[in-house]
Structure formats: C-alpha cells, structure tokens
C-alpha cells in the first residue's frame, strides 16, 4: 500500500537508501515509524538498515574514496559542489522546517529561522578552499632541500547524528568532510531521519560522484556495525556521552579516528552585580529553545545564596508565563519533547529532584490543557545540592536547577564540579570580571550575559562533553591527516 503520510509527501524515497549515487531497495522489509511529538501520529515510515546495507554503503564510500574522482579533485572543485549544495538547501528550507517540527517538536517559527541559514556552513567551508593551508613549506633540518607538511583527507567517514538538530549537524560534519576530500556514510537518528533523506535528494540533484555521500537509517545495534566496520577510517558522532564512550572504545580497538560532540550540564553563574529579573528573562527565553533539548543548554544556575530566593521568585514569574502548546501554532513559546521516552526521562528526573529534597518552584507536570503530545511544563528547582542527580546528570528537557554558592570562588568551583564541560555563561555587568571568571571555567564555550555558541569560531567540550571541535578551521582539521614530505628539490606540480 502506498505511503500517504505527511513525510512521504516531502521525501521522495523514504523506503529506500541512497547508496552509490542512486536510490535502492533495502535488504529487508523492516521499517521505522517516525512519530510527530505534538500529535503522537505517524509522520513517515523509513527503511530500517541491516548489516548487509551497512556493508553496501561502506563499500560504495570505500570505492569512491579509493578509486573515484572525489579525493583527486582540487579543493576549489569540491568547493563548487558545496556551493551548489548550499543553493539547494536554501531552496528546500521550507520543507526542512516542516520536517524538523514534525519530527522533534521544535517551534515552527524557530525552525523557519534556522532553516534559512542552513546553507551558511557549506558556503563557509567552500571559502576555506582559497584560504586554508592544505600544504605548508618548511626548511628541513635533517637533510633534504624542501620540506612539505601536507594535509590529506582522512578517508571514509561515518557521520552519526542525533535527533534534536539533524540538519545543522549534517552541515557541521559533512561540509568539512567533503571539502577535505573524504567520502561519507550519513546515519541519522531513527527518530528524525527526514533531514538526512532531504540531504540525499540534494546530493543527487547537484550530481555528486557516486558513493561520495551515502544515506541510510538504522537502530543502535546495526549502527554499531558501522562504527566497527574496517572500511570506515573515521567516525564523527553527536549524541549522548554514554553512546560516545561506547563509540570511543570501539574506535580505540582499531585506532580509528573519532570526533565526539557529546552531552552537557552547562552552568550559568549569576554574579552579584547583575539584575536578577534580566537573568530570569534570559534563562526563560533560553529554556524554550527546542524544549531544553540542546546539549549546550544552561541547566545549572549558580547564584549567591543571599540572592537565591529573589532569583527564584523572578524565575517563577518568567517560567510560569511560558505558553506551551502546538509548535505549528502562533503565539506558542515552547513545544513538546521529542518522544514519549524523553518525556518519561524528564518526569523521572523531576521525581528524583523532589525525592532528593530540592524545592520545586514551578512546573513539574504535564500541561493540563493538552491531552495528547509529549508535553511537560518548564520546571525550576531551587536550593539544589550540586551532588544530586538533577545537578549532575543531563536531563535533556526544560528543567533548570538553581544552586546556591557562598561567593564567586565557590560559584566557580560548583560550575567546574561536573563530569561535563560543554558550555557556560557568566552574568555580570563587568566584562573584565566576565573574562576573568571565563578563564577559570572548564568549558569549551563561555558566554557573557546570554546563551551563546558560535560555530564560526569553534564548538566542542572539555571532559565528558566530547573530543575535538566542530565549526570553522577547527572543524576541518579532524577530517585531515598530516603528512611530512622531504624532497631534494622543488616539485613541478603541487596539489592545491
């Protein structure tokens, strides 16, 4: 029977895989149901990959790298394809926004905004073809006349992405990999495969050589076969720290390269010179984004204990005014969680917080006016002990813990007392003070007076928040291997 779901009208081949430059049938008739979290209805069914499909995708990527034209093109030639991909993303931004909201519940207004900029990383990496030093000249000191440090593609890349922001993750992983000359197997999360399927259609439309990009969807057990596959040279992954540890262990067994963008439990330090109403409004505006389902979300708020009650009153007023509802509707501030198990997870942590003695200031329930969909109220806990589960473990939902500190030094110590180190913010009117505190925080990014991340500079984490960086030149380097070449004379030809 024909698939007549909303997703099937936006995606041309949801029951197939894109392998070797063409759409092909899977090795089995297994499928994955993708559910719209605001309605709990089926959005689309996609094919479920098995071991044979993984082997076929890796084989296509391996052949494209070992024998195909892609890694032998100039960087400028590959940049031309990236620019064409960017144009196609711009043309399909409306479809992307609808898919994004339908699959994980992001507000449609926010999806529309971010989808309009999804082409930016492709154009930015294309620009690096003209400016990045893929070859450096050195004067050798151990013999020879010409020393070269050349940077070459790492090989076949498995790009495994999470369900909360698929299209941005695809851009930050695949764009630098393609510029470097790598070939890619893209494996989206089974809960949100739509953006990857849309990307496959784009790759087909721009005429990428066969096997340069391959797309298939699999559950975790089959995905692990991709990580283990000897034909894969590098894994780039975004997801939980638990899954990242597993991937790192497997890659370590065979010394495969890996980049891991993992979880966070990011602190916001509110110093004693900052307006508490302003801080509460900023935090309220931040937690609404994707219903708190962002790895770098500010979920631990650290404030001087003398000011804690005042901040909690301000946060109660701000958070309780957030309008929760249909993410496609106007006038809504926050949508649902992405899936039923995610709501179960968040509700479990809320129960843990209460049991551990934290003060539930606002939220903590399912909105009473919504009888379907995976909704939960934005939730604030006060007087939280930093040793408890809600302060130490990533909840991945709209739950914030307010933790009292004795002074600035104590606040910094609490902020760093975490297995994570992805993001942080310092609220203060004094930029010099913000810088001084920022330099003491064990975090990949530190913002000032707002939730801030910037992929044009670089993004990634300390400690269990990951290995490596994404964005800009920092995001290109993990897809390159360096080679030292020492010659007795100048070569007539060099690669650009």
Q: How many DSSP helices?
A: 17
Radius of gyration: 24 Å
Q: In percent terms, what proportion of residues is strand?
A: 15-25%
Biggest sheet descriptor? 7 strands, mixed
Fraction of helical residues: 25-40%
The chain-level mean pLDDT equals 97
The tally of strands reads 22
Structural class: alpha/beta
Give the overall silhouette. Answer: globular
Rounded to the nearest angstrom, the distance between the terminal CA atoms is 52 Å
Q: Spans of 5+ residues with little confidence (pLDDT < 50)? A: none
The strand order across the widest sheet is: 14-15-16-13-12-18-19
Supply database-style keywords.
single chain; 496 residues; alpha/beta; seven-stranded mixed beta sheet; six-stranded mixed beta sheet; 17 helices; 38% helix
Describe the structure.
- This protein has 496 residues and is of the alpha/beta class.
- The protein contains 17 helices and 22 strands.
- The strands form six sheets. It has a seven-stranded mixed sheet with strand order 14-15-16-13-12-18-19, sandwiched between helices.
- A hairpin with a 7-residue loop joins strand 5 and strand 6.
- The longest helix is centred in the N-terminal third of the chain and has 17 residues, at 75-91.
Per-chain topology:
Layout: H1 6-10, E1 17-19, E2 22-24, E3 31-36, E4 41-47, H2 51-66, H3 75-91, H4 93-104, H5 108-115, H6 120-131, E5 135-138, E6 146-153, E7 156-160, H7 166-180, E8 183-187, H8 194-206, E9 213-215, H9 220-228, E10 234-238, H10 241-254, E11 257-261, E12 266-270, H11 276-287, E13 298-304, H12 308-319, H13 340-355, E14 359-362, E15 379-382, H14 389-392, E16 399-405, H15 408-416, E17 420-421, E18 423-427, H16 431-438, E19 445-448, E20 462-463, E21 466-467, H17 472-476, E22 480-487
Parallel strand pairs: 7-8, 7-10, 8-9, 10-11, 12-13, 12-18, 13-16, 15-16, 18-19
Antiparallel strand pairs: 1-2, 3-4, 5-6, 6-22, 11-21, 14-15, 17-20
Helix pairs in contact: 2-9, 3-6, 3-7, 3-8, 4-5, 6-7, 11-12
């Amino acid at each position: 029977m024909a698939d007549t779901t909303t997703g099937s009208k936006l995606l041309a081949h949801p029951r197939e895989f894109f392998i070797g430059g063409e759409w092909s049938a899977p090795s089995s008739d297994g499928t994955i149901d993708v559910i719209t979290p605001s309605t709990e209805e089926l959005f689309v069914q996609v094919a479920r990959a098995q071991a044979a499909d993984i082997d076929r995708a890796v084989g296509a990527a391996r052949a494209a790298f070992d024998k195909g034209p892609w890694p032998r093109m100039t960087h400028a030639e590959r940049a031309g394809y990236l620019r064409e991909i960017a144009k196609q993303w711009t043309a399909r931004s409306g479809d992307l926004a609808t898919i994004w909201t339908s699959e994980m519940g992001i507000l449609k207004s926010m999806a529309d905004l971010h989808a309009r900029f999804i082409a930016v990383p492709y154009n930015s990496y294309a620009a690096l073809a003209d400016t990045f030093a893929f070859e450096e000249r050195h004067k050798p000191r151990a013999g020879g006349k010409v020393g070269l440090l050349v940077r070459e593609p790492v090989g076949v890349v498995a790009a495994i992405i999470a369900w909360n922001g698929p299209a941005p993750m695809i851009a930050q992983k695949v764009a630098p990999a393609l510029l470097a000359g790598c070939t890619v197997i893209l494996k989206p999360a089974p809960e949100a495969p739509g953006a990857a399927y849309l990307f496959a259609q784009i790759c087909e439309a721009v005429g990428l050589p066969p096997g340069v990009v391959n797309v298939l969807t699999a559950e975790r057990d089959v995905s692990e076969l991709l990580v283990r596959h000897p034909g894969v040279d590098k894994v780039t992954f975004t997801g939980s720290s638990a899954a990242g540890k597993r991937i790192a262990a497997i890659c370590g067994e065979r010394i495969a390269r890996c980049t891991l963008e993992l979880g966070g439990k990011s602190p916001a330090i509110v110093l004693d010179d900052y307006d508490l109403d302003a801080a509460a409004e900023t935090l309220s505006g931040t937690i609404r984004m994707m219903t708190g389902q962002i790895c770098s979300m500010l979920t631990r708020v650290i404030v001087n204990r003398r000011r804690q009650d005042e901040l909690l009153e301000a946060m109660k007023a701000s958070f309780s005014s957030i309008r929760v509802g249909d993410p496609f509707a106007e006038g809504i501030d926050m949508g649902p969680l992405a899936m039923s198990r995610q709501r179960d997870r968040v509700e479990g942590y809320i129960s843990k917080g209460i049991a551990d003695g934290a003060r539930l200031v606002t939220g903590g329930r399912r909105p009473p006016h919504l009888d379907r969909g995976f909704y939960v109220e934005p939730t604030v806990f006060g007087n939280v002990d930093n040793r408890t589960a809600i302060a130490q473990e990533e909840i991945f939902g709209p739950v914030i813990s307010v933790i009292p500190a004795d002074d600035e030094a104590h606040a910094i110590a609490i902020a760093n007392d975490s297995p994570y180190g992805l993001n942080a913010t310092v609220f203060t009117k004094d930029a010099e003070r913000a810088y001084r505190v920022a330099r003491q925080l064990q975090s990949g990014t530190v913002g000032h007076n707002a939730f801030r991340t910037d992929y044009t500079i670089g993004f990634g984490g300390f400690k269990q928040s990951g290995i490596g960086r994404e964005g800009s030149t920092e995001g290109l380097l993990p897809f390159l291997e360096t080679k030292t070449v020492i010659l007795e004379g100048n070569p007539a030809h060099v690669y650009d």
